[in-house]
Design goal:
- By secondary structure, the protein is mainly alpha-helical.
- The protein has a domain of 144 residues.
- The protein has five helices and four strands; from the N terminus they run E-H-H-H-E-H-E-E-H.
- Strands 1-2 form a two-stranded parallel ribbon. A two-stranded antiparallel ribbon has the order 3-4.
- It is rod-shaped.
């Protein structure tokens, strides 16, 4: 009886990710030399709505991945030999770059008309990966600078604390005696007004008691002796 061998569908095979045929690090060794994506010429700028940024670039790279890799669901980074083989199939170092690649600094073009579409997608994928790496580098630098500013601020606060404390303590010493005198003046003023209130209360109370005694025909009380 013959043995039936089942093979996995082609879509399940691990294939190379064709968006990684070109190595961005080889095209732009200095990531800052990579032009921003997308490249737009002055001729068509007025007819286009340009949307840049990380989210847009990632979405475009995902779209290119589906176009280049088809239904493949398991992808891996190509080896150097696989990169070279795919490059030789799609590109020709002796051909001029496409006009729309101006500004990217490339020195090769599509091998033939049939590979022009794949070549354009592969180039754009490399440009997108470099652009995303550039954005990530900028974000990391901004975060590093923000952290450094925070550290510098904290260091300045710590370094200045001793002098700040010394100045405050010296001023506090100078002002403490004056503050004590001020508090005493406030207390004396309160006491002065309270003495006046008590004197008035005693006088009023005695007048009322004396009037009551006269009404009753008895001897009125003596007035209080107040210094």
């Amino acid at each position: 009886m013959a043995t039936i061998t089942h093979t996995a569908p082609a879509a399940d095979e691990v294939k190379i990710d064709r968006t990684m045929v070109l190595d961005p690090a080889e095209l732009w060794s200095d990531i800052e030399s990579c032009p921003d994506w997308p490249i737009v010429s002055a001729a068509n700028l007025q007819h286009m709505q340009i949307v840049k940024g990380e989210a847009t670039a990632e979405a475009r790279l995902d779209t290119i991945g589906r176009l280049l890799n088809g239904s493949a669901r398991q992808l891996r980074e190509p080896t150097q030999s696989e990169r070279e083989a795919e490059f030789d199939r799609v590109f020709d170092p002796a051909k001029a770059p496409l006009p729309r690649w101006r500004g990217l600094g490339l020195t090769f073009g599509p091998r033939k008309l049939l590979t022009e579409e794949d070549a354009s997608l592969i180039v754009e994928a490399a440009h997108l990966r470099a652009y995303l790496r550039k954005l990530s580098t900028h974000e990391a630098k901004r975060a590093e600078e923000a952290e450094r500013r925070e550290i510098d601020r904290a260091q300045r606060t710590l370094d200045g604390y001793a002098d700040h404390q010394r100045r405050d303590l010296a001023e506090l010493s100078d002002l403490s005696e004056a503050a004590a005198r001020h508090e005493q003046r406030i207390a004396d003023e309160r006491a002065f007004h309270r003495v006046a209130e008590i004197r008035q209360s005693l006088s009023r109370g005695h007048d009322e008691a004396a009037q009551a005694a006269r009404e009753l025909g008895v001897k009125p009380p003596e007035a209080p002796q107040v210094d």
